[in-house]
Amino acid sequence: MPDPRARETGGTADVPLWHTLPAEQAQALLRTGVQGLDAAEAARRLAQHGPNRLAPPRRRSALMRLLLQFHNILLYVMLGAAVVTAALGHWLDTTVLLAAVLINAAIGFIQEGKAEDALEGIRAMLSPHAMVLRGGERREIDAAGLVPGDVVAVASGDRIPADLRLLAAHELRVEEAALTGESMPVEKDTAAVAADAPLGDRSGMAYAGTLVVHGQATGLVVATGGATELGRINRMLAGIEAQTTPLLRQIDRFGRVLAVAILALAAATFALGTLWRGHPPAEMFMMVVALAASAIPEGLPAIMTVTLALGVQRMARRQAIVRRLPAVEALGAVTVVCSDKTGTLTRNEMTVQRVVCSGQVFDVGGVGYSPVGGFSLDGRAVPADRHPALALAVQVGVLCNDARLREAAGQWHVEGDPTEGALLVLGRKAGLAQGDAQARWPRCGVIPFESEHRFMATHHVDAGGQPWLFVKGAPERVLDLCHAEVGPGGEPQPLEIDTWRRWATDTAAQGLRLLGLACKRGAPAGERLAFADVEGGYTMLALVGIVDPPRAEAVQAVRQCHQAGIRVKMITGDHAETARAIGAQLAIGVGRPAVTGAEIALMDDAALRRTVHDVDVFARASPEHKLRLVQAMQDSGHVVAMTGDGVNDAPALKRADVGVAMGLKGTEAAKEAADMVLADDNFATIARAVREGRAVYDNLKKFILFMLPTNGGEALVVIAAILFELTLPLTAAQVLWINMVTSSTLGLALAFEPPEGDVMQRRPRPPAAALLSGFFVWRVLMVATLMMACSLGLFLWELSQGTDLAVARTLAVNAIVVAEMFYLVNSRHFFAPVLNRQGLTGNRYVLLAIAACVPLQLAFTYLPAMQAFFGSAGLSALEWLKVLGAGLFVFLAAELEKLVIRRTGIVA
Ligand code: ATP
């Protein structure tokens, strides 16, 4: 087999230029039969060509990542200070500074690596699938398993999984922007083109990474992985994008402003200390460096990223795959969730329950896909073959159908559209197997189902060679095509359109999904079945009512959303009455009217804004209605999450604050446009993701609420000492030590904080609300002051009692560290008490972080080497009690403040 990759390396005369070859010749060259490749051959070629995957985007090398850690204003200050101290011969300080720099960089390096690993794992979950013909059977496989010579089927919404020579194409239009930059879709067919045709003009080819926006096709894989055009120009498949979020940017900016302010403050302190108070400049210099090091929240951006990444990981475990990080924040602020109905709110396990035809209403027994059950009329069992009209309708349902019904290990399942699967089960219940029907009535053409036109049509020939056209679709669409209906004996009679409409409304009002079935004799006017052939002249056969019960967990999730102040709206392609009935079962839009797409089309934007305020169920809605609905809601100040699955849903998903695509039935186009993909297509997953989103946002806030006062406390101790001419309670080296031990380590535990109990009982966060509210400032100041008071107070008290300076300083250091440990526990909840079992032990990472700090403090206090280095001294049991007392004081004061807030309700 010639290696198509040879083209890459310049090519020779006998290397196939696939776009110039007729399809059959390409097939012959790649030795592929009508059955596709068999498993053994596919495996052999896979070993030869490697998986159909592009090399992952290159991560920054570990060394680069490490070096980048030093690119940080604080570390520049500290490195500068290390140089100055070395020049002055203060080797001890130089060592501490360098150690602090290294530890800071190492922590940042590890945290960033963790965040990247987390996101990397999630990226892999989004790998695309492909429908391939292997050994005569269509199978869905991971696209990485495709090999040259495979025959794959693609349909609208799919991403082309490899470079394909098209074998058959039906109305295929492909958007090739990823390759050519041209965003207008191009028409594809199977024709060969000239050798020098540019990529965009090679109509017989479909290239990996481009998107099918319309139609269906089958194609022969001619190149995979790095050998594809996409691989050649080295464009990366879109994975998780921009790794920053509005909040992260806000924090980054805040951190920088704060750093500059602190440096200014440090300079002022230096001037004050040396010029006014007459401290020796070298000592003051070290002090202000330590001050800056302790006050600048250098770990902030790194820990924020880790918190977000951990949130994303938790969501992924709960089936919500976040593609863009800002979605995590937006999820926490969502005020409206707009959901599809079928498969998201409902189970998507369809069973035909009722068939209305020839003036009779047949009930159908059985549930699920197992073909057990029969037909009954008014409670009496009837064989389907005694009713010609019913038998004909069932046959149309089975033939105008692209699904497959399979039995494996006693279990029946459907491959393809569950609505169509239900018709296959109906066929079996009537004694008609799909294979037999297809053999007797071979199919010659098809117009596949699309939500825009809401029908599917096929062209068949019967045993006598007579052509037939079948159609199935939304009843109003099908009725529009009919001029007659079939009578009980199978004979045509005039169409009683009002009667059919009444039946449709009655059936839909019971929450059943509706399909109309019709047929006509005749062949398509042209070579192929076209829309013009489906414009009229059909005979109405039957109305089919299908149950698709709501998911039990969706009922609960809708309730949760309501409690969380989030409105749930259902936007469905289904009949208005069906939508209302299912909505009522889910508590969506109860007692309110349903509005249809047709009505939306008649409204101007102002009217639509009023409507979205009052209405929760939108039926017979198409993707363009979804887009207008999102806009109307956003214009009314809502933060909108919107689900979608089809290629045409992409604009609405992009526009929504959180676009949510279905992982199972969603097209690649929808997934690409979405911020989040639901691995299980389940509405309950959205509610869980909102809960996680709120929790992540909370954790970010908790971390800041922890970090700022602890940094501030240390800084205040030093500033107060300088201002009031006191002996410095902390040496520069000690300040750096505290910073090393506590700053990024303790706070990180808050990234693991589970959602607070009331997180779904609160109203959504106003999107414009500032992160650092007035309450924030208050709490930061309060806790910083408390910490300063404890540490400084203890130090001064000890000195006044004649305690040795080294001991007093060791007390002061330990008091701050222990107060931080205690305050870490306070920080677990904003307002809720932590003086209970859950509060004290609910996050084991908090306990672990504290436990990790204890030996470090003991080493600092007792190890002779550390004592020599930091000027610390051993403490007695009584002194430890005082330290603990200081920590407990901060803890209780912080709990008291929460109690006052809870009682008075000052902070809403
Ligand atoms: P949702 O938008 O909530 O997922 P939906 O699946 O009902 O709802 P569509 O798939 O757009 O929305 O279906 C709209 C209507 O088209 C259905 O109510 C049904 O009458 C008809 N229909 C659905 N699937 C098919 C199909 N495979 N062939 C023919 N008609 C169909």
UniProtKB/TrEMBL annotation:
Task: Give the matching Pfam families.
Answer: Cation_ATPase, Cation_ATPase_C, Cation_ATPase_N, E1-E2_ATPase, Hydrolase_3
Does Secreted count among this protein's keywords? no
Has keyword ATP-binding? Answer: yes
What sections of the protein cross the membrane? 66-88, 94-110, 257-278, 284-310, 703-724, 730-752, 772-794, 806-825, 845-863, 869-894
Q: PROSITE patterns of this UniProt entry?
A: ATPASE_E1_E2
Provide the protein's localization.
Answer: Endomembrane system
Q: Which CDD domains match?
A: P-type_ATPase_cation (cd02080)
Which family is it part of?
Belongs to the cation transport ATPase (P-type) (TC 3.A.3) family. Type IIA subfamily.
Name of the protein in question: HAD-IC family P-type ATPase
Which species does this protein come from?
Aquincola agrisoli
